[in-house]
Design goal:
Length: 173
């Protein structure tokens, strides 16, 4: 929540493609001895994507709330063609629907994650990394690795819901 608020305050551009391409590249260039690092990076980049999408969703809601608060028709048009177009449509929504379309990479990412989840060799290699990083037993570390991978898969499955909500709010606006 704090990250999202800071980005809204700073009006940073929301980047999806960089995170998606990083995830895709990491998963398609796996080295056994880096399994834990790869899973950790994939998880962090997925969190970045989800955070950016939620921020975009919140920004659209913010603009909708502003416009519904007793604005004159002139102010509404100024808001729509000025701030909303510059701050939301141009900076994030258009890129989400074109060059930074998450759905382009998602099927291969999810497929690769499911393969990794089924690979005992990969899970054990990642487990060693997670065990070294924390004060976990081997079983706890293994459970954490499997949970992180499952959470990333679930996040990618949930992206459509967030994008649908963004589309709906944008259409209403």
């Amino acid at each position: 929540i704090i990250e999202a608020l800071i980005k809204i305050i700073k009006k940073d551009r929301l980047e999806y493609q960089g995170n998606i391409i990083t995830i895709y590249t990491l998963l398609n260039n796996i080295e056994k001895n880096n399994a834990g690092v790869i899973i950790k990076q994939v998880h962090e980049n997925t969190r970045g994507i989800m955070s950016a999408l939620k921020t975009l969703n919140a920004n659209i809601k913010k603009y909708m709330d502003n416009i519904t608060k007793k604005m004159s028709p002139e102010e509404i048009l100024e808001e729509l063609f000025g701030n909303y177009t510059q701050e939301v449509l141009d900076k994030a929504y258009h890129r989400l629907k074109t060059s930074e379309n998450v759905s382009r990479y998602r099927p291969k990412i999810v497929e690769k994650l499911k393969e990794l989840l089924a690979s005992n060799e990969f899970i054990m290699e990642a487990t060693l990394f997670y065990k070294e990083q924390g004060d976990n037993s081997e079983e706890e570390a293994k459970e954490e690795v499997c949970t992180v991978i499952a959470n990333v898969i679930n996040a990618f499955d949930d992206i459509d819901d967030i994008i649908s909500e963004i589309d709906s709010k944008n259409s209403k606006y």
